[in-house]
Amino acid sequence: MGKQRPKFSTNGKFVKTYTPKETINYESKVVYAFKQSEQKPFMVGDEIKASITAYFQIPKSYYRFHKKTNTTDLTKDGEAMLNGDIRPIKKPDTDNIAKICLDSLNGIAYPDDSQIVSLQVDKFYSEQPKVVVHLWKVR
């Protein structure tokens, strides 16, 4: 999921800004996954390179159902999606994927996300949707 915009509500003359629940829940999952990975947090002054790969579910319309054998398989375009020949050009945008992942890890994996000096974000299709984040020290 991509980072959602903040929401606003009014209480009399005052405007309250808040983060949507879906964003908070997703950020919590990213933090939990980082803590499970047992990767050591980076230090102040470390230059960090980040690689984020988002794998999207192949749409159901690219599967065929065979009545005789009661099985499903991918169409030709579905196979091309699985092989990486057809890539997702749908939302969320790569910049929003990066934003939610890197903001989630701010203060957890590294003191500040300004330490990210290099970033690569890729989108692919997969039969198992997921987001993979790799972080490593440049020097």
Q: Approximately what portion of the residues adopt beta-strand conformation?
A: 25-35%
Structural class: alpha+beta
The rough form would be described as globular
Largest sheet: 3 strands, mixed
Q: Estimate percent helicity.
A: 25-40%
Gyration radius, rounded: 19 Å
Low-confidence stretches: none
Query: Taking strands numbered 1, 2, ... along the chain, how are they ordered across the largest sheet?
Result: 6-3-7
Quickly count the helices: 3
Distance between the termini: 31 Å
Global mean pLDDT: 90
Number of strands: 7
Secondary-structure element sequence? Answer: EEHEEEHHEE
Question: Could you describe the 3D structure shown?
Answer:
This protein has three helices and seven strands. The protein is α+β, with helices and mostly antiparallel strands. The strands form three sheets. It has a three-stranded mixed β-sheet with strand order 6-3-7. Strands 1-2 form a two-stranded antiparallel sheet. The model has no long low-confidence stretch (mean pLDDT 90).
What would a concise description of this structure say?
The chain contains three helices and seven strands. With 139 residues, the protein is of the alpha+beta class.
Question: What's the structural blueprint in terms of helices and strands?
Answer:
Elements: E1 7-11, E2 14-18, H1 21-37, E3 48-57, E4 63-66, E5 71-74, H2 76-83, H3 94-105, E6 116-126, E7 130-137
Helix pairs in contact: 1-3
Features:
139 residues, alpha+beta, 3-stranded mixed β-sheet, two-stranded antiparallel sheet, 3 helices, globular
